[in-house]
Specification:
alpha/beta
């Protein structure tokens, strides 16, 4: 998972909100079955979109502050952040193509 950053309450502002790249944030927990199902998809996207998209995983059990700030009630929730704002989100384990279709519009201004 070399292209995935572990997000925390502490580093979230720097890694996500101040990122020059769009950011896919995977809100997850170790006990969550659907989270484990979507993890390989998130990793594939991180590898395929290196340099165009930053991927951050936030364990909601350990980082309740960020999860509550964004109203994360169900996991996995995959949030797409651009210019410091949550611009889209997908809840649940979804097929890769569905997730890519949500991310792609936010990549168009990235070289």
């Amino acid at each position: 998972m070399k292209n995935i950053i572990e997000g925390t309450d502490f580093n979230f502002p720097t890694e996500v909100l101040k990122s020059d790249l769009p950011v896919l944030v995977d809100f997850w927990a170790p006990w969550c079955g659907p989270c484990r199902m979507v993890a390989p998809v998130v990793e594939e996207i991180a590898n395929e979109l290196t340099g165009k998209l930053k991927v951050v995983k936030v364990n909601t059990d350990e980082n309740y502050g960020v999860a509550s700030q964004y109203g994360i009630m169900s996991i996995p929730t995959l949030g797409i952040f651009k210019n410091g704002k949550l611009v889209d989100a997908v809840i649940g384990a979804v097929p890769k193509q569905h997730l890519v279709s949500k991310i792609t519009p936010h990549l168009e201004n990235v070289n």
